[in-house]
């Protein structure tokens, strides 16, 4: 008997774990399990461990699980699909490592269906997989329409200080627990993949056919997993708007600066012995720690954490790629299918960072970070000059940061890896906010999941179906368009809701010649971009930030766009 409108309780047996209760959805025949735990967190700032037992061999997966603590999310609101039967999402620092599993109609444990796994973005500060807009039902329904039934997975992982902070104190403390310094959220994700490889067959999934896709920080994560020793845990990798460097990369010494600033704003005596001040920080309630994010990041409206360049994460065998690696770097250690793409106006998300810059300030940054010839060419290419309007400078900063962080790396990856499949998202937003009219960061994944179906035009819904079809084909081992190859093939979504296949010769919406100009200077160009969007030198200096004469007034959660 249905226990909620349109939904009935169902259950499934998971070998070695027990029985999970979920929801059968009468409308479309999908079955869903929410909040299924995949790992345990032994302590703040320690790596998680794979979960291999359920209490009393039971798990109620009919309600949303907890998600990681995080500050107020400074984005404009957008309509969320109603899911009243799941209850409210909630914060739980130590019970946040859980996943949502959506099974297509007719799926049974005896099947061996492909599995599409999505890693959410959010700059490693924000984000959770329990948003209604990334519910797996529309994508699972689309897989049935295509005759390619596919299981859809989303999951939570630790973000913010809890998932990525590193320091000398944290490194020394973790030596007795196997090592590690920062990057805790990445190991959480690895444990999610390990859990799926071990248990997804109980739900009808094939662990040898896992497509791993991620957007923004989620794409950083996919890139990390592709570069890792455990890249055999998935068969297809999709990087949506991101490679490892996009959120900035931090040495252990640089992260220690952020750690010391956090101690200060939490009222912890920084002169205490390292073990004592770390323990004191562990005892600060997460509500207080999360509130300090904007303070530590010197008032940035969109703070973001990045990967820590520490040796533990890859077992000391491989080095984490830095920006220069993407000039000719080959993904030869990964044997699966590789897909990489971008949006036309990625860096518009940082508009509050550079909206009020002056021409002189931007010119000074360009001359500071780039060699004279490239600095001159950069000012010419982006038409940065005295007398330009504030809006013109704003758009120039957006284009510069988009190219340096988001669109040049995929181009160079494709050049060095002709087997990669490339796409571009050029469809512009119709939302009534400051990003309306731009093909902005994050727009593609909203179309992928179909959560905004109710407010889209029929043309936009058709574009969403095309995008969904492509990802489902990749998940089923049937690439829907050719690898980039010598011709430079690329799928283009938009503008005007069109979906086409083009080549490097016919596609003119990315400055490929400019990418060739900067390819040998990626490290310097990356530093310029992160200075523009994050004021990186100030962030890494003890002379700036909370408690200093250079501290800025912080307004938490000042609205950005979607």
UniProtKB/TrEMBL annotation:
Question: TM spans, by residue?
Answer: none
Q: Which GO terms describe its molecular function?
A: hydrolase activity
State the InterPro entries in the record: AB_hydrolase_fold, CarbesteraseB, Carboxylesterase_B_AS, Type-B_Carboxylest/Lipase
Q: Which SUPFAM superfamilies match?
A: alpha/beta-Hydrolases (SSF53474)
Recorded E.C. number(s)? 3.1.1.-
Question: What's in the keyword line of the UniProt record?
Answer: Hydrolase
Q: Which superkingdom is the protein from? A: Eukaryota
Please name the PROSITE patterns in this protein's record.
Answer: CARBOXYLESTERASE_B_1
Q: Which family does it belong to?
A: Belongs to the type-B carboxylesterase/lipase family.
UniProt name for this protein: Carboxylic ester hydrolase
